[in-house]
Amino acid sequence: MSSAHLVRRIVTGMLAATLALLVSFSLGACQQNDEKVIREGATQVLEAFKNPTKENLSPYLGDMDDETSQMLDSYGIDIYEFLGHAFKHFDYSIGEIKVNGDKATVDITAKNANLDSAIEVASQKFEEEVTQDEIISLYSDGGEKAVMQKFFTYAYQALDDSTDIKESSATLDFTKTDGEWEVDDSSMEDFLSTVYGGADFSGME
């Protein structure tokens, strides 16, 4: 698996795991109307992305799935460090919210550095600047983990320096079950793409 493909796989796994925790907004016994609850819940989540510190993100990442957690650990990747770079340029707005019985939709517009182009830039610089002898030395000392950590220094720099800031929109579809609004899986991929600057995750493992 190439470095670029692995980075994209890791990104998809991390955010998918995060979204599984973010997309359920419990109504409980509150007196607010559904639209207000959904807007406040979506705002809380998106504000954490906009200010991606460990303090803001950790409440949503405690139950990451085992496969993703093991993959990150095996490559020595700090999820908070990654998200700090990935969302450095992130901003958003929440548009119209429509509620119809136990169904709802939320229009979200976001802008961010395009992940695809940042990985491409990082891959090109990695290939140009890191010699085969250096890669062999890294692998000899620390295995694939050391090589991947080297690649991530380029990926982080490319994300930080990116001028390819894309704005895109997505509609999240919600269904209310047992007093909780839960996002429908069918709208996940568009949302993932939107928050990562229009990145294409279609066909990703």
First-residue to last-residue Cα separation: 11 Å
- SS elements, strand count: 5
Which stretches are poorly predicted, pLDDT < 50 over at least 5 residues?
A: none
How would you classify the helix and strand content by structural class? alpha+beta
Number of helices: 8
The domain tally reads 1
Describe this structure in words.
This protein is α+β, with helices and mostly antiparallel strands and 205 residues long. The chain has one domain. Helices cover 56% and strands 20% of the residues. The protein has 8 helices and 5 strands. It has helices spanning 3-22, 34-50, 54-61, 66-74, 79-86, 115-129, 132-161, 188-195, and strands at 24-26, 91-100, 103-113, 165-177, 180-183. It has a 5-stranded antiparallel beta sheet. A hairpin with a 2-residue loop joins strand 2 and strand 3. It is elongated, with a radius of gyration of 18 Å. The N and C termini lie close together (11 Å).
